Structure formats: C-alpha cells, structure tokens
C-alpha cells in the first residue's frame, strides 16, 4: 500500500511559488543583486520538486510570522553537485 504525501500540505511547510521572469527582474533590481547572491536550494528538495521548479528558477517562500505578520524569502534553485 502506497500513500503519496504532498509536503506542501503539511502545516510546518511554508508556501512556495516559482517567480516569473518579470518578478525576478524586479527583485534583483530592488535589492541591486544578482541571482548568484540569492540563497540556494537544491532541485531535489521535496518542496521544490512538489511545485515543479527546476535549476535556475527563483522561488518565493512566504511564511506567517508572529512578529512580522508575513515574511518573504527567496531562493535560487540549483542542481546538487555530483559526488
């Protein structure tokens, strides 16, 4: 018996969304950075796989926060290096 688990439905996993090219350009311009300066996440991360993201996509992660109300984080999807 196999049961598929959708990690995005778990209460502890924040909302993950793939950003459009326009949104990425706006983000990079706002903070005057390049994609290489964003924090990274591997392409085989369960949440990344669940939303269908691939290498070089930028993901917006939205968390609810008791202090900030809503906190956004951004990650660049990269391939895991081969051993």
Labels describing this entry:
4-stranded mixed sheet; Eukaryotic RPB6 RNA polymerase subunit; 4 strands; globular; 83 residues; 2 helices; alpha+beta
The CATH fourth-level homologous superfamily: RPB5-like RNA polymerase subunit
Rg (C-alpha, Å): 14 Å
> Which percent range fits the helix content?
10-25%
Q: Could you say what the CATH topology is called?
A: Eukaryotic RPB6 RNA polymerase subunit
Count of discrete domains = 1
For the biggest β-sheet, the strand order reads 1-3-4-2
Q: How would you describe the shape?
A: globular
- Secondary structure category: alpha+beta
Low-confidence stretches: none
Order of helices and strands: EHEHEE
Please give the count of helices. 2
Number of strands: 4
CATH domain class name = Alpha Beta
Distance between the termini: 33 Å
Largest sheet: 4 strands, mixed
Note down, in words, how this protein is organized.
This protein is of the alpha+beta class. The chain has one domain (12-78): Alpha-Beta Complex (Eukaryotic RPB6 RNA polymerase subunit). It is built from 2 helices and 4 strands, in the order βαβαββ. It has helices at 21-31, 46-51, and strands at residues 15-18, 40-42, 58-65, 69-78. A 4-stranded mixed β-sheet has the order 1-3-4-2.
């Amino acid at each position: 018996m196999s049961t598929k688990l959708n990690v995005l439905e778990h209460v502890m996993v924040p909302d993950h969304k793939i950003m459009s090219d326009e949104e990425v350009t706006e983000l990079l311009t706002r903070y005057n950075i390049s994609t290489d300066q964003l924090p990274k996440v591997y392409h085989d991360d369960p949440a990344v796989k669940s939303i269908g993201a691939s290498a070089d996509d930028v993901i917006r992660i939205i968390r609810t926060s008791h202090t900030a109300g809503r906190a956004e984080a951004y990650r660049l999807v990269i391939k895991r290096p081969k051993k």
